[in-house]
Design goal:
Elements: E1 2-6, H1 13-26, E2 31-35, E3 38-39, H2 48-56, E4 61-63, E5 66-67, H3 73-80, H4 87-98, E6 103-111, H5 123-130, E7 133-138, H6 144-157, E8 162-170, H7 176-189, E9 195-198, H8 206-216, H9 227-234
Parallel strand pairs: 1-6, 1-7, 2-4, 2-6, 3-5, 7-8, 8-9
Helix pairs in contact: 1-2, 1-8, 4-5, 6-7
Length: 242
């Protein structure tokens, strides 16, 4: 199993989750995707798991709770007058799914330490209970270094294994900060990037998306992403210090 979280909201977690699911399904693996708490979506409206279904063709999808307001799961539950997400129960459901699936993906809401209930439980707690590694999805632009460093420090403090850092949406025309951030993101993570999905990948058709997923994720996740080649194409050249 693998937990997907972000450094903040809107970083491309759902697209990365769909990419992981698409690559696993293309290998013939049985894949289940779990969304413990969907917020900002009315009942009956398409949510994140519908995007996963559309992009990856995976239908083994499990949304544990839904709240209509675009807030943290804990705040959204309070505002709607509904019970909060019960992460211990989610852990049990994920554990049951993992017994009969090749891969279970769990997509969090917002960032790593977003609260799911008034006791302060987070997706980091769920990962720790499951013994699952966490894939962190980061932005490429200015400000991402601090957000990523804080996220990785929080994971390490809780004894949760890092599966890697993926840039959720790499633009066609990256600016100076984005190009410089490639090297620093790897320094923060103490490992090469685990991938970079192209911006706009979520609007592709399934066949095109599978190609983007393959090129945008590292071999550990079923792709062919080469961080050295990506640096050569998109990173800043290293200048010699006189």
């Amino acid at each position: 199993m693998l937990v997907v979280t972000g450094t903040c909201t809107g970083v491309g977690k759902t697209v990365v989750t769909a990419a992981l699911a698409a690559l696993a399904a293309a290998r013939g693996a049985s894949v289940a995707v779990v969304k413990p708490g969907q917020t900002g979506v009315e009942p009956g409206a398409p949510g994140d798991l519908d995007d996963v279904r559309r992009l990856a063709g995976v239908t083994d999808l499990h949304e544990c709770a839904r709240f209509p307001d675009p807030l943290s799961p804990a705040a959204a539950a309070r505002y709607a007058g509904l019970p909060p997400v019960r992460l211990p129960e989610v852990a049990g459901e994920v554990g049951t799914l993992a017994k009969s699936r090749s891969l279970v993906l769990v997509e969090g809401a917002g960032g790593l330490l977003v609260r799911y209930d008034d006791e302060g439980r987070t997706i980091a707690d769920l990962a720790r209970w499951l013994g699952a590694a966490v894939l962190v999805v980061a932005r490429p632009d200015l400000g991402t270094l601090n957000h990523t460093a804080l996220t990785l420090e929080a994971l390490a403090h809780r004894g949760v294994q890092l599966a890697g850092v993926v840039v959720g949406a790499w633009p066609d025309d990256p600016d100076l900060a984005m190009r410089a951030n490639l090297r620093d993101l790897e320094t923060i993570a103490a490992r090469p990037l685990a991938g970079a999905l192209p911006a706009g990948a979520g609007a592709l058709d399934p066949a095109e998306f599978l190609l983007a997923a393959r090129g945008g994720l590292a071999p550990a996740f079923g792709g062919v992403f080469d961080p050295v080649a990506f640096h050569a194409a998109h990173g800043l050249p290293q200048k010699e210090i006189p």
